Amino acid sequence: MGYRIAPRTMLAAAAMLLAGCATVAAQSQPAPAALQTAEQPELIATILGSGSPEYRTERANASVLIRYGDTRILVDMGNGAQARLHQAQVPEETLDGLFFTHQHLDHNEEFVPIFIHALLGGRKFMVAGPTPMEAILASTLANYDADIRYRLGRIGKTMEDAEKDYTLTELKGGEDFTIGGIRVRTIRVNHSIYTVALRFDAGGRSIVISGDLVYSESLPVLARDADYLIIDSGGVIKKDGRTGPPGAPGGLRNARAHVTLDETGRMAKEANVKALVLTHFVPGENDEAATTAVLRRYFAGPVLFAHDLMEIPAREP
Ligand SMILES: [Zn+2]
Ligand SMILES: [Zn+2]
User: Fold this and answer.
1) Would you indicate the residue range of the signal peptide (predicted)?
2) For residue 134, what are the domain limits?
């Protein structure tokens, strides 16, 4: 089966190579005319899943929906993301992007159903994530080949038709491209597997999603002056006195996989972000005051504690 790099990504990559910087093609681009409605569109993030790998019904695993006008990008899709997506009244077939920060199970567990529903929907969309994105997509198509062909047949389409509807990009970090009026930039960060942070800019607002990480010099570069940094809650303090971060999975001895609060505060300060949004919470009640007090050593701006279906910025009542 043929997989194609998104033409937009290729153009952006070519521009970066030619110009030696990543700011040529997409910077300051207004939203396309088609997206201009009576009101100016607004870049909004909805936290679909604010939890961590441990299964709970009250917090889905990692997932954030980015919206601008009628452009919709889903970043990570851990357990529970599909249900939250529908609670946010966003059907899979309206998504323009299925993106990943990394391929840990708590970030990609619901890729299969979301991808297949999007594919059956017939809208053009982009799949993008770090390695092994290509293998995950290939195995999904192979495992569900007969099922997908059967469902496509019921709506008069073939697999060959459907393959024209999506593109695949294996993110390395350093990408810079535009999708539906949203400028997207990525950078590699330090985690136990290949991980990228993603930045979204549109309509004068910027939102960064860190993915899971430990301190990374690269993150403040990507997140420079951003309005919101949605970040791994790492060392959040719990009311029972427990303090993260959890140990690294996979037997990585003496290695951490998640930030400490000091690291979060340092990166927020270095990036000069306007607001922090902590997410990816382990079970237990967060001690928001104690957690914020640690972050205040470095960061004076708003500190928000994510919950499922929380909108950023918060909606006016
Ligand atoms: Zn995670
Ligand atoms: Zn992870």
Assistant:
1) 1-26
2) 7-16+41-312
